[in-house]
Automatic annotation (TrEMBL):
Keywords: Hydrolase, Protease. This is Aspartyl protease family protein. It holds the Pfam family gag-asp_proteas. It comes from Thiobaca trueperi. One of its GO terms (biological process) is proteolysis. GO terms for molecular function: peptidase activity.
Length: 169
């Protein structure tokens, strides 16, 4: 009896499983994304600031621009430079210089160096930013490291990260 029911309804069961998988996948992706198109606005001190909300996995992901081109950043305070994949550096047409060996979470890797004319997060622009290009960096996200963040006052509180220009720099 079960086999007859399954035979009659197998296509319905497959459609239901496909829809369920799609919903789960979308939920995971939504948890990992956040902060599209941020805009700097005057904070309490009158300085422009951008407030980012952490995503479902406690990371700060934000859209921004490198040399005027749209990118997606993952804030990474453990990264010295702004880091990206070789593929993305080619898309941005960055001139690359032979770099050095870099210690990454995936081991040691030879990389390239580049100088970014501008890095923009919601209108908070830093010019002449050091970048590292790594051949094994997966995905299209750019690691927004300390080469940018050191120019900002960074405040973490209540699941939010506030970025504002560091006036003492």
């Amino acid at each position: 009896m079960k086999q007859a029911w399954l035979k009659q309804n197998s296509s319905s069961v497959l459609v239901l499983l496909a829809v369920l998988a799609l919903v789960l996948l979308m939920g995971v992706q939504m948890r990992q994304r956040g902060n599209p198109n941020p805009v700097a606005y005057p904070g309490p001190s009158g300085l422009p600031q951008v407030v980012l909300k952490e995503n479902g996995v406690h990371q700060y992901v934000v859209t921004g621009r490198i040399n005027g081109e749209p990118v997606e950043f993952l804030v990474d305070t453990g990264c010295a430079d702004v880091a990206m994949s070789y593929w993305l550096a080619q898309r941005l047409r960055l001139p690359l210089q032979q770099g050095e060996m870099h210690v990454t979470g995936n081991g040691n890797v030879q990389g390239w160096s580049a100088r970014l004319d501008s890095v923009d997060v919601g209108g908070l622009i830093v010019r002449q930013v050091n970048a590292t290009v790594l051949p094994n960096l997966q995905g299209g996200q750019v690691l927004l490291g300390m080469a940018y963040l050191r120019h900002m006052e960074v405040i973490l509180a209540g699941g939010e990260m506030t970025l504002r220009p560091d006036v003492n720099r």
